[in-house]
Specification:
Strand order of the largest sheet: 4-3-2-1-11-12-13
Distance between the termini: 47 Å
Largest sheet: 7 strands, mixed
Number of domains: 1
Radius of gyration: 18 Å
CATH architecture: 4-Layer Sandwich
Strand content: 15-25%
CATH topology: Purple Acid Phosphatase, chain A, domain 2
Length: 267
């Protein structure tokens, strides 16, 4: 082993709920990335890094320059960067790949890291049920409708998208662990493991950080978020750990399955 680590982060939602609060989280994230730049071999961002992202041929959303600059620095130094699209930044195309040298992944990834098998995905639309969102995702990913949206002036398009995103966020003010039999992503992991073995199955989307035994010898992981928990995963080639950077220190995260996360960003 080369002594380098693999890091996993998800659900940062840069841009939410306003520039001031988003900037505070962005600065914290940049500080964290600067601290791990010498120990990181690769970093997987498992979706919803931006609360909204849309690319025209010559226009991208304004802002996030500190974060994007740090990603460029890491990528240029040899750190492999992977961006998964989430349900809020599903419209990533080739800008980040061309400008920053990142890989953009629009679906789940099956990969091997230092001899361990990983299944990585944002998680939206996976698992049984949730037919309403799965239908909505088909609309979001429809190329004809995307082309129609691109005909709007960027100020109009971004304004519509941000209002929609914020209205949804106001309705989703709490995230709690519902139990293994009701967590759609955990049920998805169990179904996957019936067909193929993975050592670790890693997701974003749920905002609730947790590690659960799955299948015969696998681990299901929800990475949490950078809105409340500031959690991230780290794999050293032997063990996977959930840690937190909530107090600007890298500390182990203690999972409390009875805890309910309440997000009050709009209050």
């Amino acid at each position: 082993m080369n002594g380098k680590f693999t890091y996993f982060l998800s659900d940062i939602h840069l841009g939410l709920p306003d520039r001031k609060k988003s900037l505070q989280r962005e600065l914290k994230l940049v500080k964290f990335l600067d601290e791990i730049k010498n120990s990181a071999e690769s970093i997987y961002f498992a979706g919803d890094i931006f609360d909204f992202w849309w690319e025209y041929k010559s226009v991208v959303p304004r802002g996030y320059v500190r974060f994007l600059g740090k990603i460029a620095e890491l990528s240029d130094s040899g750190v492999k960067i992977f961006f998964f699209t989430g349900n809020h930044d599903i419209w990533m195309k080739d800008y980040l790949k061309e400008e920053l040298g990142t890989e953009i992944l629009h679906k789940e990834l099956k990969t091997e890291i230092k001899g361990k098998k990983f299944y990585i995905a944002h998680g939206d639309g996976l698992g049984p049920g949730d037919k309403k969102y799965k239908f909505l995702k088909k609309i979001f990913t429809n190329r004809f409708l995307q082309k129609c949206f691109s005909l709007l002036h960027p100020d109009t398009a971004f304004g519509i998208a941000k209002k929609w995103s914020h209205s949804r966020r106001k309705k989703e003010t709490s995230y709690d662990f519902k139990g293994k039999d009701k967590e759609l992503l955990f049920l998805h992991s169990e179904d996957i493991l019936k067909k193929e073995h993975f050592d670790y199955l890693i997701y974003g989307h749920r905002h609730f950080p947790v590690m659960l035994s799955a299948g015969k010898s696998s681990v299901h992981i929800n990475l949490g978020d950078w809105l409340v928990n500031f959690t991230y995963g780290i794999f050293d080639g032997k063990d996977f750990r959930l840690k937190t950077y909530k107090n600007n220190k890298q500390e182990d995260f203690i999972v409390d399955l009875n805890h309910t996360i309440r997000i009050n960003l709009f209050n």
